[in-house]
Each structure stands twice: as structure tokens, then as C-alpha cells.
Amino acid sequence: MAIRIGIVNDVMLASRVLRRVLQNQPDFEVVWDAADGVEAVQKCVEDRPDIVLMDLVMPNMNGVEATRRIMIDAPCAVLVVTSTIGGHLNLVYEAMGYGALDVTTTPVVGDSRVSDDGEALRQKIRSLVTRPSERGARVSPAVATGAEVQSSALVAPRLVLLGASTGGPAAIHQILRLLPRDFNAAVVVAQHIDPEFVNGLGDWLASASRLPIQLTGGETILQAGQVYLLDSRHHAQLVGADRLSATDQAGGSYYCPSIDLLFSSAAEVARRGSVGVLLTGMGRDGAQGLLRMRQAGLSTISQSEDSCVVYGMPRAAEAIQASAMTANPDAIGDYLIQYIQ
Questions:
Q1: 160-213 pLDDT, tens digit each
Q2: In this structure, what is the dihedral angle of CA atoms 304, 306, 312, 313, given to the nearest 10 degrees?
Q3: Which sign does the torsion angle of CA 303, 304, 310, 316 carry?
Q4: What is the CATH number of the domain that holds 112?
Q5: Active site residues
Q6: Is 253 within 8 Å of 235 (Cβ atoms)?
């Protein structure tokens, strides 16, 4: 059965471009177009598609408010598709906060950001709609093993590693806004997101965080009281208790940066008292790495089902008893404040 798609864009040329890159695909069917958010909400209620390609800046009602209302009146997958990377990034992350699953750029002929004239967009649509169900029964976590952490750098900071995918920016935002200026750990954030939007994500998170945020894609010495946002053009791993290094090797991981790689490396070298947190997202990335952290005696947390946009990665972690506790983002922030002394 074809994926039913609604296109929301007030620029006729942009709508035509989107139709062109989706046509002649046997698994796609464009069922309607809308010129603004008001029309999009109405059409979703009357004829709910599998996914909505949502523009941001439109007359009458913008894409943020349209996403919010769609999630209330006719919930379905929403993919933000915007022609401009800069200038409106705050709207991108506001829309994600209301339930938009991901963001990408409008395909443009000859644009180096787009491979094969829209193939990146087509792949993203398929990944958001055609994956198997991410929901399922929760498993009660077992007692942590208490194994020794392999770390020779006793003066290295404790680490808080946040891994997230679909719906992650809003959850990370909630956690970081709670952490105090004197937070005595280095925070490393691995978020699956298109590379074009990483800088904007950093700016948006910085607007809520009391801790300075640094985008990193290479060799970095980690310091307490800093947030390090991984550049999604590269994978990253810990090569010492306080040293982060970029790599292009991640054991065949589909997502970048690989949360499994980051967490697994932490299990080998992170200082005792470090924490791994696996947040909302599709798939299984991070579950095995979180399990290794727990087996190494580190604290592990997964986001609660009722607070996830997509209960995929946390579900996978709980299914293998990788998380010692589950909580919503606010409770995770409160726990980190109490635990990191």
C-alpha cells in the first residue's frame, strides 16, 4: 500500500518541486496540497494522510501552530520541509516540540545538500512511515551488575551522555534547561539530525541552557560544566575518560552520530558515576551501548513511554534490561542534579 502524503506549502513552485520528486514512486501517493496551516489542519481532519510535509513560514497559520493542531485533531507523522536553513530555525525546533518527527530541506536541482534530486527526502519519508511499530510491552529492569569501570583518569569529569533521535530536540531542551551553572559533569549530546540543522539545534538549546554549548566534530577534551553537541557529519567515541574523538567507523550504524558507539566507548573508559540517558527515537540505536554501560556499573536511564514522541530506542533498551530507571525528561533533569554532586 502506498504512503499517503499531504504537502503544505504556500509557494506553488515549492509544491511542484515536492510533487515532482515524489511522482513515479510506486510506494508514494500525494493525496492533497494545502497553501497554509489552516487548510492543512482541515484537510488532515477530512482525509488524514500517513505523513505531512510541512512548511514553516506561511500566511494565516504557520507550520508550528499547524503541527500543534494536527497533533490534537488528527495525529499523523509530520516532516518539516523548509527551503531556508537559517533565519527560522527557532520555528523548526518549536515544531519538533509539538510533535514534528524530523526536518529536512526542500529539494533543489543542483543543490549539493540533496543527492539524486530528492532521494534524501524520499528516504526520510520511507524511514518515518514504513518502519515496523515501535511500541510494545515494557520490561522491568534488573539490578545493575556493579562491575568496575575501566578508567585510569580519576581526575576526569563525570559524564552525562544523552542519546536521542525522533522527538529528541524537545526532550534534550527540557533536560538542559534544568541543569545549574555549576553542574559538575560534562554533558555529551548525540542527536540524529540532518547536518544542516546541527548549528541551529545548538543555538536553540543554548537559549534554554545555563551551561555553555559547544559543537564538536573532532578531538575534544571534555570539561565539567560544558555541553558538547556532536556534529552529525561524524561518529564520535570516547578514547579516554575525558577525551572525545571523531571517527567514520561505527560498525555499520545507519544513524550518525552512532549512540551505540558513544555509549559503548563510555562503558570502557568513563569515570565511575557517569550516566547514560537514552531518549525518544525510532529504531534501536543506543540500546546495546546502554546495556554495556550498565554492565560496567554506570547509571543508565531511558525515557518513559508516555513522554516519548516515538517509543522505539527506549523500548529496545528496556527489552534487554539496559536501563536501571525510566523517567520523563523533567524527572531525568531532576535526577541528574541530585546524582551529580
A1: 999 998 889 989 999 999 999 999 999 999 999 888 888 889 988 998 899 999
A2: -20
A3: positive
A4: 3.40.50.2300
A5: 165, 192, 285
A6: yes
